[in-house]
Specification:
Rossmann fold; 3-stranded parallel sheet
Length: about 170
């Protein structure tokens, strides 16, 4: 979303998969992006975790993000191959990102595919995407964050329809 806002002339179409302009705003709509947030405590805690503890933490997280048990080990392995410090810093940064104002400048056609649980927050989510003028939001029927594995056919159909239509 940030790239599409910064480089309007380069992006013709954009697909957003289970991401929001400001995830933290689902809990607190008045929250904004804070400058120079200090994540050192969280980074230190997670980087010092023994591998087995980190694995268990990630496994608990992945169970909330994917239903397709055949792909659980794959996404868990991706997570475990990540550098813990980079992973934690990225998570902190993502948790502090607010693109609600920035996306006002996006002019490309946008497909937004969201996990099924986000239906419970539909008014708040639609409010976040309100200023993304050419956005088309679709909620998965049952899939979680890894929609492409949980509802593969639906996901591929959504992509094909979006990419082949003007």
């Amino acid at each position: 979303m940030a790239i599409a806002a910064d480089y309007i002339e380069l992006i013709e179409k954009m697909v957003i998969v289970d991401a929001l302009p400001c995830l933290a705003a689902l809990i607190n709509p008045s929250i904004g992006q804070r400058e120079n947030i200090d994540c050192s405590v969280m980074v230190n805690q997670i980087t010092k975790l023994p591998e087995e503890q980190f694995l268990q933490m990630q496994k608990m997280s992945m169970l909330q993000l994917i239903q397709n048990t055949e792909m659980l080990e794959t996404v868990l392995n991706w997570s475990m191959q990540s550098d813990k410090q980079t992973f934690t810093e990225m998570y902190c940064d993502f948790s502090n990102t607010d693109l609600r104002e920035k996306i006002k400048g996006v002019k490309c056609s946008t497909l937004v595919l969201l996990e099924s649980n986000f239906r419970n927050f539909k008014p708040a989510i639609e409010e976040q995407f309100r200023d993304l003028e050419f956005a088309d939001l679709h909620y998965a029927n049952n899939g979680l964050h890894f929609i492409m594995y949980d509802e593969k056919e639906w996901y591929l159909d959504q992509l094909a329809n979006f990419l082949t239509n003007p």
